[in-house]
Amino acid sequence: TQSVVRETKEATAEIIMSLFLKPIESITADDVKQFCEQRTAENVRIEYKKDFSSKDVSKQVAKEVSAFANTQGGLILFGVDEDEERRPKLPLLGIAADPDPAQRIKSICLDAIYPPIVPEVQTCRLPKGDNVVVLVRVHPSDETPHSIEGRTEKGISVYLSTPPSLFAPTALALAEAGLVTPKTRIAMEKP
Asked: How many Cα atoms are found within 13 Å in the side-chain-facing hemisphere of 164?
């Protein structure tokens, strides 16, 4: 019985890690489905988005991507809805594939984030219908902090994806390193 439990835990960890480590071009809709079947709740490294529902899609994408790049990296899955416990809902419904959501995300990251970020993006067509799930994999950046307003006289906004207990020490470390000014706004994107 213990070996079955251990094997199940190992298989679950392998599925979760596959989206983080598998070559992005090799990830399929079946990989995403298996990942979502594990019911891993959103956390500081995983974000589910039902669609591009924000009033300002560019800001929505830029905040999430920059928050992950400024911290430990992470995954954003567009086309995956979540329940009240922040776990993925099944079946996967996806989002419309037209216009090209992957290109849209890449363009936003190049245009709306400073310094620009180039995340890995994979579009996975769902087996039924024309909808897709878009996986955005963001690596931790060596060029932090990334902001979404650019460097202007109004200042910059820096987003972090970090547990609340690490927010203050991280913000303080950025300030001590001279990476923020009195016009810098540092915000926690997700708990």
From this structure: 1
